[in-house]
Structure prediction request, 305 residues.
Amino acid sequence: MTTEVHGSTTPEVTVVVPHYGAPGPTLDVCAQLLAQRDVDLEVVVADDASPEPIVVPDGVRLVRRDVNGGFAANVNSGLAEARGALCLVLNSDMQLRDRAVADLVEAARPHQPCLAAPAITTVDGRWEESRHRWPSPLRTAVSLSRPVPHLTRIPRVRRWLLESRAVATEGPTPCDWVSGAAFMVPTPVIRSIGGLDEHFFMYGEDVDLQRRLRAAGVPSLLFRSVEMAHVGGGSTDPLRADGWSLQARWVYAERHGYARRLRAMLWGTALVNVLWNVAARAGGRKVSVRRELRHDVLRARGRTY
Prediction:
């Protein structure tokens, strides 16, 4: 299962690429990683029991799980095999410049130990929101209310709802948490806190990880000078994604002590949404008030629909 990468048994960076599903994107990012310049790295693909087992190229190590466990469990499987001093967790749908990993290592070196993240862009170069505040029960509840699409037209409200903050163009920008699509942390540090929490199946595990790292004195820093592009466009069923997202919100709330407040605020959101939907229906829009109320009630009870 183990293959030497770039002729080194102790690489500077281990890149863990969590994989599930179609092999194309993962193989593309592996090719980009093997072509990285000026950095000694190994690539570990963690296959989360995909229906179609992936065959990785020479120079890439493969860890295949017997049971699908979700993103956090899959990353931890790859992390267990990491030999590098630093661990870079990288989504399979990323595009990298030929020095992206080396640039991130160099930018973060004076600030270690830290969780270092690049600026995430779209493939056409547009900046994605990458720097966020810690989640709160109020912000979560408001984000699930029906008036949100109208409120987000106001820039100040949009920034508050997205929990985003300005990013420095030079040097590191301290963050509460950054996108989990690409982040690097010293391998002994992430292992010392137990890796990602496997109670999160999908979503939220990156926020929780960074909160635990912060409690251990390890900050999250975003480096605007290093860019990686996020292709996105996955084929995950929206209902399954909504269910995972809801589960993640509740796991996070329980882990960080505000589950009761979140439940109360979600009941308030249900009331706001009923009034909004009744008004919308009275105005001639096609809205199923009963169905939407059922969704909100299930969500307030911590259940999916």
